[in-house]
Design brief:
alpha+beta; four-stranded mixed sheet; binds zinc ion; single chain; 20% strand; 4 strands; 2 helices
Length: 105
Amino acid sequence: MKPFNFFERFFRFTVSRKDWFLKGYTFGVLKQLKISLMKKYYVNKNAQNNGDHEVHTGDCKYLPDTSNRKYLGEFSSCKEAVKEAKKDYSQSNGCKTCSNECHTS
Ligand SMILES: [Zn+2]
């Protein structure tokens, strides 16, 4: 084996390993990012005065008590959570405080 070939092989091996490592790292970062964007959503079992069942994130200060809320799941946006809530309560609406972009009335 010529020295040149040896170094070239070694270089290619290192690059391919590094590439693999970077891909794994990038994937891990994206996964973490996705997890941090995912929030737990709950719907209020009791309707508001206007008949709306409010959808809240797990960290909202207006989150109802355990007995008055239904866990919807983890979603990256309140739109998906409201969609899920509508399976149970057709008149579901995002909370003005925690899910303002899904708050319509
Ligand atoms: Zn809320």
